[in-house]
Amino acid sequence: MTASDWTRPARPYAIAHRGAAAYAPDNTLEAFRIASRIGADMWEVDIRVTSDGEIIAFHDKILSDGRKIIETPFADILAHTTAEHRPCPRLRDVVAEAAKLGAGIYADIKDTNVTLPTLHMLQEHGITRAILGAFDPQAAQILAEANSPYPRSVLVPLGAEPFSYAKGADVIHLCWERMERPQDTLTDELFERAFANGQTIAIWHEEDPERMAAIRTRPVIGICSDRPELVNQPGRGLPFQTVCHRGANKIAPENTLPAFECALAAGFDYIECDLQETADGEIVIHHDPTLERTTNGHGPITAHTLGALRDLDAGHWFSPHFTGTKIPTLDEVLELVRRYDGQAYLELKSAPPAPAWQSVCDAGLQERVFFWSFNQAALKELRASAPTARIMARRQDYATLQETLNDLAPQIVEFTLPEGTEEFAAVRDAGAQVMVAAMADDPAILSQVIAAAPDLANVDHPFALTRQVRA
């Protein structure tokens, strides 16, 4: 391995497994672009060759209709995968996009005979951060003989002894995700032996937050994940807490579990969600009073039972990838918040305050949730019945700041940017926090949010905000 600073990162590289495969069809340009938006450092790309010699990004040996990739021309593969809403890209287009976005490439070479063409393509596009790997150790030997400037990786299957299987490779890539507790294998002795051999270790694709917490602090070169935002959590370490309006709603359909999980996996502090009551008295998450905009249903959401709502598709409108995504219940969202040790902003739409508060209490999240509603009567009812509930008040709804602070004794006061920052100190002196709401993705607007120095920022574009903070 050619020595260079990038091969010994201060933290593991977030390697997007086949792109951000949790949010778009794997190995597509869409998946790779999303990966870069949400914090991936490198893209893991599966590489095969077609019958007419086109090098492509595709994982399986066969198409969904049984045709073998190696026996099918690229035009036919593209037509078939496009019809399935997952157009297969040529490798050269993936590499060109990586060069444009500044992403590294982790090449998983499936067909060994494209090893050298892959190497040359990366060099031609000026990719500096690349790892070339395969399950077949012969690929590493081919790269060594070609004096590849990139680290050579061997993917070690479960059951194989890593050092003998990956002998001569620069990177030992452990594909052990099917073990119950693979993190327990990452012992000091394992790393000491690897480092003594001049090798480093890359990690299987990991999507479990508990297991990720145990491995992201280990001295590995990178961690693969369908959720690359989970690896290094770009939402952490900001100068304020971030509230993700309807979840990461630019990555996954708003007010759904995928959108909420993306926000929480990325380390953002809060998800914001809208609470509606069903015809049979359950609480679900949905913004509009009617179903048409974000589901295949019709009419008022309050006129439907939970069972009827759960039969609807709340994802296809956003992307075919999310077809079949369900309208979530409040309890499901609170369980997700618990799993990620996150927090939630609950907006009461048609849902009554008492059962919503009870669900929060049942989940043990009283200190990690705050409420707001356009319905002032609902907030007054909540304050009267739950004196310890955390409530937000909007400054724009009151004539004076004193009225804002007196009405519901809020724990948080929300401002918009045009309202200025002059009253922030008085809010904090009263024991409340300041939240600024800004839904635009304009860098100038996001810069104003940062300059305002709120305690919380309620935004539609949390990943853009993190990039702006670190610009």
UniProtKB/TrEMBL annotation:
Domain GP-PDE, chain residue ranges per copy: 12-235, 240-471
Biological processes annotated in GO: lipid metabolic process
InterPro entries: GP_PDE_dom, PLC-like_Pdiesterase_TIM-brl
Molecular function GO labels: phosphoric diester hydrolase activity
CDD domains: GDPD, GDPD_AtGDE_like
Pfam families per the UniProt record, alphabetical: GDPD (PF03009)
SUPFAM superfamilies given in the database record: PLC-like phosphodiesterases
Annotated PANTHER family: GLYCEROPHOSPHODIESTER PHOSPHODIESTERASE, GLYCEROPHOSPHORYL DIESTER PHOSPHODIESTERASE
The name this protein goes by in its record: Glycerophosphoryl diester phosphodiesterase
Organism the protein comes from: Celeribacter halophilus
